[in-house]
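Usage

Read records sequentially. Each one opens with the input sequence:
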Amino acid sequence: MELAGRTVILTGASGGIGQPLCAALVAAGARVLAVGRDEAKLRRVAQHMPEGSTSWVVADVATEDGRAHLLRAAQAASPLPSVLVLAHAQAAFGLFEEQDPVEMERLVQTNLVAPMLLAHALLPLLRTHASAAVVVVGSTFGSLAFPGFAAYSASKFGLRGLTEALAREYADTGLRFQYLSPRATRTPFNTPAVDALNAELKVSSDVPAEVARQLVAAIVQGRSRMQIGWPEKLFARINGLVPGLVDRNLRNSLPIVRRHARRPRSSTEENIHHEPRLR
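and closes with the structure output:
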Protein backbone atom coordinates (compact mmCIF):
# COMPACT_ATOMS: atom_id res chain seq x y z
CA MET A 1 0.00 0.00 0.00
CA GLU A 2 1.48 3.32 -1.06
CA LEU A 3 0.74 5.95 1.58
CA ALA A 4 1.37 8.94 -0.64
CA GLY A 5 -1.83 10.92 -1.12
CA ARG A 6 -3.77 9.01 1.52
CA THR A 7 -5.34 10.42 4.67
CA VAL A 8 -4.39 8.44 7.77
CA ILE A 9 -6.22 8.67 11.10
CA LEU A 10 -3.70 8.22 13.91
CA THR A 11 -4.92 7.83 17.49
CA GLY A 12 -2.45 8.40 20.32
CA ALA A 13 -0.65 10.83 18.02
CA SER A 14 0.91 12.87 20.82
CA GLY A 15 2.32 9.85 22.66
CA GLY A 16 5.84 8.49 22.82
CA ILE A 17 5.42 6.27 19.76
CA GLY A 18 2.65 8.38 18.24
CA GLN A 19 4.77 11.47 17.59
CA PRO A 20 7.54 9.76 15.57
CA LEU A 21 4.90 7.58 13.91
CA CYS A 22 3.10 10.71 12.74
CA ALA A 23 6.38 12.03 11.32
CA ALA A 24 7.12 8.72 9.57
CA LEU A 25 3.65 8.61 8.01
CA VAL A 26 4.05 12.18 6.75
CA ALA A 27 7.50 11.33 5.38
CA ALA A 28 5.86 8.50 3.44
CA GLY A 29 3.54 11.02 1.80
CA ALA A 30 0.43 10.63 3.92
CA ARG A 31 -1.75 13.38 5.28
CA VAL A 32 -2.32 12.64 8.98
CA LEU A 33 -5.40 13.34 11.06
CA ALA A 34 -3.77 13.28 14.50
CA VAL A 35 -6.02 12.30 17.40
CA GLY A 36 -5.39 12.81 21.10
CA ARG A 37 -6.83 14.21 24.32
CA ASP A 38 -4.46 17.17 24.76
CA GLU A 39 -4.80 19.97 22.21
CA ALA A 40 -1.55 21.66 23.22
CA LYS A 41 0.42 18.47 22.59
CA LEU A 42 -1.32 17.90 19.26
CA ARG A 43 -0.50 21.45 18.18
CA ARG A 44 3.17 20.86 18.99
CA VAL A 45 3.15 17.66 16.93
CA ALA A 46 1.62 19.46 13.95
CA GLN A 47 4.09 22.35 14.26
CA HIS A 48 6.97 19.96 13.60
CA MET A 49 5.38 18.64 10.40
CA PRO A 50 5.40 20.17 6.91
CA GLU A 51 2.65 22.73 6.49
CA GLY A 52 -0.67 21.20 5.47
CA SER A 53 0.44 17.63 6.20
CA THR A 54 -1.15 17.27 9.63
CA SER A 55 -4.40 18.35 11.21
CA TRP A 56 -5.64 17.34 14.63
CA VAL A 57 -8.77 16.26 16.45
CA VAL A 58 -9.08 16.58 20.22
CA ALA A 59 -11.06 13.54 21.29
CA ASP A 60 -11.07 10.90 24.01
CA VAL A 61 -11.80 7.81 21.90
CA ALA A 62 -12.66 5.85 25.05
CA THR A 63 -15.91 7.84 25.20
CA GLU A 64 -18.93 7.77 22.91
CA ASP A 65 -18.80 11.55 22.43
CA GLY A 66 -15.10 11.41 21.54
CA ARG A 67 -15.63 8.72 18.92
CA ALA A 68 -18.59 10.62 17.42
CA HIS A 69 -16.50 13.79 17.22
CA LEU A 70 -13.68 11.93 15.47
CA LEU A 71 -16.12 10.34 13.01
CA ARG A 72 -17.47 13.76 12.01
CA ALA A 73 -13.93 15.06 11.50
CA ALA A 74 -13.04 12.01 9.39
CA GLN A 75 -16.12 12.49 7.21
CA ALA A 76 -15.08 16.11 6.60
CA ALA A 77 -11.48 15.27 5.68
CA SER A 78 -10.25 15.47 2.11
CA PRO A 79 -9.39 13.01 0.81
CA LEU A 80 -11.49 10.72 2.99
CA PRO A 81 -9.33 8.57 5.30
CA SER A 82 -8.39 5.17 3.97
CA VAL A 83 -6.10 4.09 6.83
CA LEU A 84 -6.89 3.94 10.55
CA VAL A 85 -3.89 3.50 12.86
CA LEU A 86 -4.85 2.67 16.43
CA ALA A 87 -1.79 3.63 18.48
CA HIS A 88 -3.33 4.80 21.76
CA ALA A 89 -3.06 2.71 24.91
CA GLN A 90 -3.23 2.94 28.69
CA ALA A 91 -0.53 1.31 30.79
CA ALA A 92 -0.95 -0.76 33.94
CA PHE A 93 1.83 -2.33 35.96
CA GLY A 94 1.35 -3.84 39.39
CA LEU A 95 0.35 -6.96 41.28
CA PHE A 96 -3.15 -8.01 40.23
CA GLU A 97 -4.50 -8.07 43.81
CA GLU A 98 -3.39 -4.48 44.28
CA GLN A 99 -4.90 -3.12 41.06
CA ASP A 100 -7.69 -0.56 41.34
CA PRO A 101 -10.89 -2.13 39.87
CA VAL A 102 -11.94 1.23 38.45
CA GLU A 103 -8.61 1.63 36.68
CA MET A 104 -8.77 -1.93 35.33
CA GLU A 105 -12.18 -1.22 33.87
CA ARG A 106 -10.91 2.01 32.34
CA LEU A 107 -7.90 0.19 30.90
CA VAL A 108 -10.06 -2.40 29.12
CA GLN A 109 -12.36 0.37 27.89
CA THR A 110 -9.40 2.32 26.47
CA ASN A 111 -7.27 -0.52 25.10
CA LEU A 112 -9.93 -2.89 23.78
CA VAL A 113 -13.50 -1.57 23.75
CA ALA A 114 -12.62 1.85 22.28
CA PRO A 115 -10.60 0.43 19.33
CA MET A 116 -13.37 -2.09 18.65
CA LEU A 117 -16.11 0.55 18.57
CA LEU A 118 -13.99 3.07 16.68
CA ALA A 119 -13.15 0.57 13.95
CA HIS A 120 -16.83 -0.39 13.76
CA ALA A 121 -17.87 3.26 13.36
CA LEU A 122 -15.27 3.98 10.66
CA LEU A 123 -15.75 0.81 8.57
CA PRO A 124 -18.36 2.31 6.23
CA LEU A 125 -16.03 5.22 5.47
CA LEU A 126 -12.97 3.00 4.98
CA ARG A 127 -14.87 0.66 2.68
CA THR A 128 -15.58 3.46 0.22
CA HIS A 129 -11.97 2.92 -0.95
CA ALA A 130 -10.80 0.11 -3.19
CA SER A 131 -8.03 -0.55 -0.67
CA ALA A 132 -7.95 0.46 2.98
CA ALA A 133 -6.38 -0.68 6.24
CA VAL A 134 -6.95 -0.80 9.97
CA VAL A 135 -3.57 -0.96 11.70
CA VAL A 136 -3.41 -1.91 15.37
CA VAL A 137 -0.25 -1.01 17.28
CA GLY A 138 -0.26 -3.85 19.77
CA SER A 139 2.30 -5.17 22.22
CA THR A 140 4.51 -8.15 22.89
CA PHE A 141 2.19 -8.68 25.86
CA GLY A 142 -0.60 -9.40 23.38
CA SER A 143 1.19 -12.66 22.55
CA LEU A 144 3.18 -13.27 25.72
CA ALA A 145 1.27 -12.59 28.94
CA PHE A 146 3.60 -11.34 31.66
CA PRO A 147 3.29 -11.31 35.46
CA GLY A 148 2.72 -7.81 36.78
CA PHE A 149 0.87 -6.92 33.58
CA ALA A 150 -2.20 -9.16 33.87
CA ALA A 151 -4.86 -6.58 33.02
CA TYR A 152 -2.73 -4.95 30.33
CA SER A 153 -1.92 -8.34 28.77
CA ALA A 154 -5.62 -9.26 28.82
CA SER A 155 -6.53 -6.08 26.94
CA LYS A 156 -3.82 -6.64 24.34
CA PHE A 157 -4.65 -10.32 23.86
CA GLY A 158 -8.24 -9.25 23.21
CA LEU A 159 -7.10 -6.62 20.73
CA ARG A 160 -4.99 -9.16 18.88
CA GLY A 161 -7.93 -11.55 18.72
CA LEU A 162 -10.20 -8.81 17.39
CA THR A 163 -7.69 -7.88 14.68
CA GLU A 164 -7.10 -11.48 13.63
CA ALA A 165 -10.82 -12.26 13.43
CA LEU A 166 -11.55 -9.15 11.36
CA ALA A 167 -8.65 -9.91 9.01
CA ARG A 168 -10.26 -13.26 8.31
CA GLU A 169 -13.77 -11.81 8.06
CA TYR A 170 -12.68 -9.28 5.41
CA ALA A 171 -10.09 -11.48 3.68
CA ASP A 172 -11.94 -11.35 0.34
CA THR A 173 -12.25 -7.54 0.32
CA GLY A 174 -9.89 -4.61 -0.18
CA LEU A 175 -9.90 -3.88 3.57
CA ARG A 176 -7.07 -5.40 5.56
CA PHE A 177 -6.33 -5.57 9.27
CA GLN A 178 -2.80 -5.55 10.69
CA TYR A 179 -1.57 -6.28 14.23
CA LEU A 180 1.93 -4.85 14.68
CA SER A 181 3.68 -5.33 18.02
CA PRO A 182 6.48 -3.17 19.39
CA ARG A 183 8.52 -4.50 22.31
CA ALA A 184 9.68 -2.27 25.16
CA THR A 185 10.22 1.24 23.83
CA ARG A 186 12.00 4.14 25.53
CA THR A 187 9.08 6.49 26.15
CA PRO A 188 7.32 8.01 29.19
CA PHE A 189 4.67 5.30 28.68
CA ASN A 190 6.83 3.23 31.04
CA THR A 191 6.77 4.16 34.71
CA PRO A 192 10.06 4.30 36.64
CA ALA A 193 9.12 0.94 38.16
CA VAL A 194 8.77 -0.63 34.70
CA ASP A 195 12.10 0.86 33.60
CA ALA A 196 13.76 -0.57 36.72
CA LEU A 197 12.22 -4.00 36.10
CA ASN A 198 13.36 -4.01 32.46
CA ALA A 199 16.86 -3.01 33.51
CA GLU A 200 17.14 -5.80 36.08
CA LEU A 201 15.71 -8.41 33.70
CA LYS A 202 17.97 -7.08 30.93
CA VAL A 203 15.00 -6.46 28.64
CA SER A 204 16.04 -4.77 25.40
CA SER A 205 14.24 -1.59 24.37
CA ASP A 206 14.01 0.43 21.17
CA VAL A 207 14.10 4.12 20.39
CA PRO A 208 10.68 5.41 19.26
CA ALA A 209 11.88 6.63 15.85
CA GLU A 210 13.11 3.14 14.92
CA VAL A 211 9.82 1.60 16.05
CA ALA A 212 7.93 4.13 13.93
CA ARG A 213 10.11 3.33 10.91
CA GLN A 214 9.40 -0.39 11.21
CA LEU A 215 5.67 0.18 11.72
CA VAL A 216 5.34 2.32 8.58
CA ALA A 217 7.38 -0.20 6.58
CA ALA A 218 5.02 -2.96 7.72
CA ILE A 219 1.98 -0.87 6.72
CA VAL A 220 3.41 -0.29 3.25
CA GLN A 221 4.31 -3.97 2.90
CA GLY A 222 0.85 -5.04 4.05
CA ARG A 223 2.11 -7.39 6.77
CA SER A 224 -0.79 -8.85 8.72
CA ARG A 225 1.36 -9.55 11.79
CA MET A 226 4.69 -8.32 13.04
CA GLN A 227 6.59 -8.65 16.30
CA ILE A 228 9.48 -6.21 16.64
CA GLY A 229 12.65 -7.38 18.35
CA TRP A 230 14.65 -10.47 19.20
CA PRO A 231 14.28 -12.56 21.39
CA GLU A 232 10.69 -11.28 21.84
CA LYS A 233 9.77 -12.65 18.42
CA LEU A 234 11.07 -16.09 19.43
CA PHE A 235 9.42 -16.04 22.87
CA ALA A 236 6.05 -15.11 21.37
CA ARG A 237 6.26 -18.08 19.02
CA ILE A 238 7.36 -20.47 21.76
CA ASN A 239 4.50 -19.25 23.98
CA GLY A 240 2.06 -20.17 21.21
CA LEU A 241 3.56 -23.62 20.66
CA VAL A 242 4.95 -24.73 24.04
CA PRO A 243 3.66 -22.32 26.72
CA GLY A 244 4.93 -24.53 29.53
CA LEU A 245 8.52 -23.60 28.66
CA VAL A 246 7.69 -19.93 29.07
CA ASP A 247 5.83 -20.67 32.32
CA ARG A 248 8.96 -22.21 33.82
CA ASN A 249 11.23 -19.44 32.58
CA LEU A 250 9.05 -16.64 33.96
CA ARG A 251 8.57 -18.41 37.27
CA ASN A 252 12.25 -17.86 37.98
CA SER A 253 11.72 -14.12 37.50
CA LEU A 254 8.75 -13.85 39.88
CA PRO A 255 10.69 -12.49 42.90
CA ILE A 256 12.10 -9.69 40.74
CA VAL A 257 8.71 -8.88 39.19
CA ARG A 258 6.97 -8.83 42.58
CA ARG A 259 9.59 -6.54 44.08
CA HIS A 260 9.14 -3.94 41.35
CA ALA A 261 5.37 -4.39 40.93
CA ARG A 262 4.43 -4.12 44.62
CA ARG A 263 2.47 -0.97 45.44
CA PRO A 264 4.75 1.77 46.82
CA ARG A 265 4.09 2.76 50.42
CA SER A 266 4.56 6.53 50.24
CA SER A 267 1.66 8.61 48.93
CA THR A 268 3.89 10.32 46.37
CA GLU A 269 5.11 7.06 44.89
CA GLU A 270 1.61 5.61 44.98
CA ASN A 271 0.30 8.48 42.85
CA ILE A 272 3.05 7.89 40.32
CA HIS A 273 2.36 4.16 40.32
CA HIS A 274 -1.34 4.49 39.61
CA GLU A 275 -1.24 7.38 37.13
CA PRO A 276 -2.76 6.22 33.82
CA ARG A 277 -0.27 6.73 31.01
CA LEU A 278 -1.39 7.01 27.42
CA ARG A 279 0.88 6.83 24.41
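Summary fields computed downstream for this record:
- The CA atoms of residues 90 and 133 lie 23 Å apart.
- Residues 101-126 form the longest helix (26 residues).
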